[in-house]
Amino acid sequence: MKFEETDLNDNILDALYDMHFDECTPIQEKCIPEILGKQDIIGVAQTGTGKTAAYLLPILSMLDDGGYPQNSINCIVMSPTRELAQQIDQAMQGFGYYLNGVSSVAVYGGNDGNRYDQEMKSLKLGADVVIATPGRLLSHIRMGNVDLSKVSFFVLDEADRMLDMGFSDDIMQIAKGLPSTVQTIMFSATMPDKIQQLARTLLKNPVEVKIAVSKPAEKIKQSAYVCHEAQKIGIIKYLFGTDQLKRVIIFSGKKDKVKDITRELRRLNINCCQMHSDLTQQERDEVMYEFKSGQKDVLVATDIVARGIDIDDILMVINYDVPHDAEDYVHRIGRTARADRDGIAITFVSEKDMYSFGQIEKFLEKEITKNPLPEKLGNGPEYVPNKKVSANTSRNRQHSHGNRHRRKGKAASDTQQQSNAQPAKPKSKSRRRRRNKNGADNAKNQKDPQ
Questions:
Q1: Alpha helices in 203-254 (DSSP H)
Q2: Which terminus has fewer CB within 10 Å in the chain: N or C?
Q3: How far is Cα 96 from Cα 79, in angstroms, rounded to an integer?
Q4: Number of alpha carbons in the 13 Å side-chain half-sphere of residue 353
Q5: How far is CA 68 from the centre of its chain?
Q6: Could you tell me if 211 and 376 are in contact, meaning their C-beta atoms sit under 8 angstroms apart?
């Protein structure tokens, strides 16, 4: 279905035309008409399926058409992380470029007092769309900065992740302050029991839209190294020594390990940056800017950027350790091979992670290619995916191996590369209008939106 075939209003269609969005994704095709029809929705779809537009476009279209309270909060969008909240807000700015007075504010923690004051002012003035992390919004509610009595739309984006992060009570407290007439839209990558229970509590006769849990894109070349923990940095050194790698994300499940990996990479003079929960919001913004703009070649990160962060030109994803489950694996490696590009995904599988990796292979319904270790690193463990190995046992077995490969002395000090910020791309100068019944083009003369 093309966007022109939907009932989205002309201002939204103009923005989509400028952004070169023509056809709906499956989740958009199924959700947009239902949301425009005032139905509660539970959508099961992964990151990268276009779900942000699936709920923002119809909501913005309805707000722009009018009939909603002025100077009031009309829509609450809940996000599990600051980064996703920022990205939703950026999408809001693009989709709402031609809208008449539909305002928004992103509300999230990790900021200074000035930012909090700005949030408070926008909330009290009644921004139409509030995009917020649960804890921060609840803080404003407790301070009396938020009037939820006129909210018409309540959106839970990545609901499963919010529950995993312990936001269940916060969400329920926020929901209690909403009108009984609110239209609730929930998106989740999975449908475990706790999500089904939340849906039963918050949604009224919802329409369920399921997009099948997708396997990784065919353009992703997947492989793995079966190795001891102490061999992982050696494999990194080998990979970066054989090619001038850029646009790489290295994932680890723990922030302390992210810090360790970053230190090791800098000793190898690899131009990298790190992303984890210990960074302030300003530091996170700077890291994402440096990586997106190409000032840094490698981003080492926890799963904070595994979902919902839209960077189209990632060439390689390295799983320094195996993610907890198959869906996390799909999310991680889904950062590459986007926008119809090719990509490479490499996973390091130590003894303690073999069982988990075997479960991932079962989910994928295929065996992932196992690369031979670089010769100078010695032998790795035998791959036995059907047997669980405790972490203590794994550490004991590799202790002597790690000592044999421990490097002496200090490597070269860290070098930092800096480059000028890339200028923002100008908006398209073209606009369009829906053709009338006679086929006449009602488009206005070309106008520079700047």
A1: 232-242
A2: C
A3: 19
A4: 24
A5: 30
A6: no
Distance CA 428, CA 16 (A): 11
Instruction: Report which of 51, 58, 54 is spatially closest to residue 7, judged by C-alpha positions.
Output: 58
- Three-class SS state of 14: helix
Contact status, residue 381 vs residue 228, Cβ threshold 8 Å: yes
Which residue, among 278, 308, 310, 264, has the nearest Cα to 291 in the 3D structure?
310
Bridge partner residues of 344 (DSSP): 221, 316
First-to-last alpha carbon distance for the chain, in angstroms, is 30
| Closest alpha carbon to 77 in 101, 97, 65, 95 | 95
Residue with tokens 């003894």: 351
**Measuring CA to CA, how many Å separate 43 from each of 32, 54, 145, 175, 191?**
11, 10, 31, 19, 10
Q: Give me 307's structure tokens.
A: 């979902």
Torsion of CA 411, 225, 217, 385, to 10 degrees: -140
Mean pLDDT of the region 81-110: 90
What would the pLDDT profile of 233-255 be if each residue is shown by its tens digit? 999 999 998 777 889 999 998 88
- Say how many residues make up the chain: 450
213 pLDDT band, cuts 50/70/90, is: low
**Identity (one letter) of the amino acid at 324?**
H
Classify burial at 173, counting beta carbons within 10 Å of its beta carbon; exposed 0-12, middle 13-18, buried 19 or more: middle
β-bridge partners, 19: none
With a pLDDT cut of 70, the percent of the chain lying above it is 82
> Of 389, 312, 398, which is closest to residue 353 (Cα–Cα)?
389
CA atoms within 13 A on the CB side of 228: 21
Q: For residue 189, give every residue at least 6 positions away whose Cβ sits within 8 Å of its Cβ, in sequence order, or none.
A: 44, 45, 46, 47, 158, 160, 161, 213, 307, 327, 331
Report the alpha-carbon distance of residue 174 to residue 172 in Å, rounded.
Answer: 5
Taking the C-alpha atoms of 21, 40, 335 and 275 in order, what is their torsion angle to the nearest 10 degrees? 120
The answer to whether 92 and 131 are in contact (CB under 8 A) is yes
Q: Tokens standing for 154?
A: 């309540």
Task: Indicate the average pLDDT of the chain.
Answer: 83
Q: Which two tokens stand for residue 175?
A: 């929901």
Cut 0.70: pTM above it:
no
Tell me the two tokens of residue 106.
Answer: 């992103």
Alpha-carbon distance of 183 to 196, in angstroms, equals 17
> In this structure, are residues 350 and 384 in contact, taking their beta carbons and an 8 Å threshold?
no
Determine the 3-state secondary structure of 207 from DSSP: strand
